[in-house]
């Protein structure tokens, strides 16, 4: 008795088993879901890292953040806000000096 050809269903596609190129491609595909973090969580992570209380990896574990790029983007945003605040304070102090 002949064995029936096996197939694999992946996202609506029916693929014949044994096709190694397609199988490898499917294994490499990862499904990412967008995770939203609260402002408080972001602030806690950034404060911990900036104050030296947490390493990036420790913050990832403590707050269940899977990708270090998330925290790095928060740090860049924080750094940009700090620069903006500093320039605004400098501009204000220069205006006061001129008066």
Please specify the SSE layout and strand pairing.
Layout lengths: L6 E4 L2 E4 L3 H9 L10 H12 L5 H7 L5 H31 L1
Antiparallel strand pairs: 1-2
List keywords for this structure.
99 residues; mainly alpha; two-stranded antiparallel ribbon
Number of strands: 2
Report the β-strand fraction as a percent range. Answer: 5-15%
Distance between the termini: 98 Å
As an assembly, this protein is single chain
Query: How much is the average pLDDT?
Result: 76
Radius of gyration: 25 Å
Reading the helices and strands in chain order gives EEHHHH
- Report the biggest beta sheet as strand number plus sense, adding barrel if it closes: 2 strands, antiparallel
Shape: elongated
Helix fraction by DSSP (H/I, runs of at least 4) = 55-70%
Strand arrangement, largest sheet? 1-2
Question: Unreliable segments (pLDDT under 50, ≥5 consecutive)?
Answer: 1-12
Structural class: mainly alpha
Number of helices: 4
Describe this structure in words.
Strand 1 (7-10) and strand 2 (13-16) form a beta hairpin. A two-stranded antiparallel ribbon has the order 1-2. It is built from four helices and two strands, in the order ββαααα. It has 99 residues and is mostly helical. It has helices at residues 20-28, 39-50, 56-62, 68-98; strands at 7-10, 13-16.
Quick recap of the structure?
The protein has 4 helices and 2 strands. It has about 100 residues and is mostly helical.
